[in-house]
Specification:
This protein is mostly helical. 68% of the residues lie in helices and 0% in strands. The protein contains 16 helices and no strands. It has helices at residues 8-21, 27-36, 42-49, 57-64, 69-75, 85-104, 106-110, 112-125, 134-140, 148-173, 178-187, 194-201, 205-217, 229-245, 247-253, 255-274. α1 packs parallel to α16, α3 (42-49) packs across α6 (85-104) and α4 (57-64) crosses α5. It is globular.
Amino acid sequence: MTSLPERAGRRCHNVLNPLHSSVYFAPEFTEELGRLGAKNGAAYLAGRAAPLGRVSAGTVTATFYNFKHELVAQHIPAVWDVVSPEAAIAARLAVADRMLRRLLGVEAVAAQEMTEAATLALRAAEACSRFARPLYAAHADLAVPQEPHLALWHAATLLREHRGDGHLTLLVNAELDGLEALVTHAASGHGLSPAWTRKTRGWSDEEWAAAQERLRERGLMAADGELTQAGAELRKELEHETDRLDRAPYEHLGTAGVERLTELGTAFTTAALAAGAFPADLFGKG
């Protein structure tokens, strides 16, 4: 394996991940999963957890990490009685197809660059590890789609879940529970906005404030809700260690491959963002 420039893997991941995650914000996703019977918050939970099979609420809470368990239990496992995991997986892929055609345009979907990006991303994913990475491992058991744009979406999903599973291990080691992880991430300016987070993850204003107070007691958060130097250093170290645990796929791809995949991913994601892939108020500290 090749030694990469610092943060090269993270930069590559950051431009591929939106191609995966935007599916959960697509109107087609809510429409299709709702048509099948997974309405409101059940759509995201069922759509992302489906590769795990007919799992319990506890399994989803454990693997998603930052959702309030009571919210998860409102929908899981009941949703599997109306939408089977197999149906949810098929619906998610169909939505990814429609979404990418809408956001990128038919010419980009059919372009040689799309095939090249899919080939590179799948090659990187060859070096991902199943061990202690349940969401990645479940997705890795799915068949690779034939169409290049869907193969790229699938590979981006594998790389995202691989990095995410490793990150959760580090959050546990740092003694940050799911809500505290969300609060510190939001305060760093890199996460979802607190309003979006509370609405979609099931946490109340009071629970958010209590988590902030716990973080203040640890010296990680200031009175104004900003991270202290210690808090900022912790978030920085978490990302650095996540890079370390996630280095294998990008080292396997090699420096030139990572640079090219980053270039291609940047072009596709820039186009998707310009086309409105995410709500305008999704990110930030507001």
